[in-house]
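Predicting structure from sequence has reshaped protein science. With that in mind, we have picked out one protein's residues alongside their backbone shape tokens:
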Amino acid sequence: MSTQISQIDLQILKKKVYQAARDGRAISIFAMLWNLDRESIVKEVLSNLTEENGQITTPLIIAARNGEEKVVQVLLSNFEANIEQTGTVRFDGYAIEGATPLWCSAGAGHYNIIKMLIEHGADVNHSTVTNSTPLRAACFDGRLDIVKYLLEHGADLSIANKFKNTCLMIASYKGHKSVVEVLLEKGADADARAHCGATALHFSAECGHVDIVKVLMEKGASILKNDKDMTPLLVAAECVQAEVVEYLISSDICSKVDKINALELLGASFANDKEQYDIENAYKYMRRGICERFKNPENIVRKNLDDPVPAYNNQVECKTLQEIDAIKINHSALHMEGLAIRERILGKDNPEVPHPVIFRGAVFADGARFDRCIELWLHAMQLRQNKYRSVSKDLLRFAQVFSQMVHLGVNPEFKSVREVFVRGTAELIYDVRRREESPSDYDNLQEVYEENIHTLLYLIVIILKLKIPDTEQEDFYRCVYRFLQQKPELRNGYTLLHMVTDGATIVDDFHVNDIVTFPNGPLCKLLIDCGANVNAQDKLGNTPLHIIVQYNNPISDFENLHLSMISLIKAKAHLDICNRDHKTAMDASVTGVAEVIIKTNSSISLKCLASKVIKEHNIPFKGLIPMGLEDFIEWH
């Protein structure tokens, strides 16, 4: 066979070799490559990246990932494939970028391939894009044999990933006791901290791995606080890990106050945890906490309470055994007791506090107790937003429940929807700030920003369906005006008016689409009344009028089409503005109905006619007339 092949044959060869490597056909690979030039053709074939099923891999990487030992042997021994080449592989639903053959085989648990790669000189510490090493991949899966082998061949157990999570932390989190013991024997730092301030003890306590908690404590792990000011004991209590709590409070180093807080927090979490709800244990542990307070009559530890929270029915925490016993069978009171305890012990700024509040609100919503749901969710949103945390999901959650209420004929109060809308407008400001502060995450943050814009439009539509008191109308208009002042805009240049005139604007499909549709004539008119720019152009030069005339349901939805177009035209929408395809709104119209509406309600000014002539005949005007007129002529 000639060592030279055509480009077409080369592409075919790349595909065949990749497929053979993927499927474990080592002999086929040998036959296809043996007589070809090693430095040109073979090297190019074996370094070629193939994208398939969310993975981007070379023949060697896919073979290592799939555990094809003979293929790996052939590629290394006969064709000297680059042992450090990297690609993207998928594990447990996650895309791992920058993965080497060694990392892939360690992550997939292919012991023999790992030995083969290391014997051929693979870098045992070559990490992925997120700084994950092969050793970390083996620790994640709990493969003790692989962990030992990698350590014996120079794996550095101190290398942490981009979140500063060490191999000991991941093994502790996943519950691999034997791996934890080996790492500690080899000198792993039990007190190393992740970016969040957590140690291996925090991770094992969070997941309820009491056997690993014991090992770490026996090896001298320190009781440290994470960035949320929580010890492993508080983390275990917050995560409803009763066995870990019982073990840690029995320790000699656990203070009386820490023990009380852990017992009360554990009970409070049992009362409102979505996955581990247990009202009997909730009562038991909250009562044990009070018992502990009064255990020594000469040193009673009394509660230091804040003002009661209205969202928790203004419930004051129980301070005595008589009080907690009085609500033993009152589940609703125990739920609110738990929420109040969590907020007191963890603090209002702790990001874990809102989750059970939202869960309890959702339970109320399922029971059609929308008033209580809204009270709790508003409180949860306030807790988040006080620390500038994202409330995007909260906003959408409110839009969904408000829509459900309207659909059921149980209209929410205007003041509640207004509060959510005002907080949503503030969230847009935070969104812009977050984008500026994290340019590397711009795309994700922009996505959240655009989702919030959509949700705020849903909320306005919901308000328009309510009976707003006359005294509140002016305030409502001011709220919408402030929203417009933020100049919300999508990546395609869509303003709010573009969105509300476009039938393709996304509407959430969980309750919201029962109430919200686009185009939306009343919303279009409202935005215009509040100062929206009717002549704004998107990235393709389209105005809102260009968008609405392309709506193809002019008969079944005539009211929205007509109101939108009339509102735009009466607000001085320029009919002769051309988009990038040099089309006016009339040119872009797809229905006769839209054309009739334009013709019967339009009038072109002398100013517009003059501008059109200037553009058509390429008459020079820049620098000869005021800047405002230059922009006006450019529209035409």
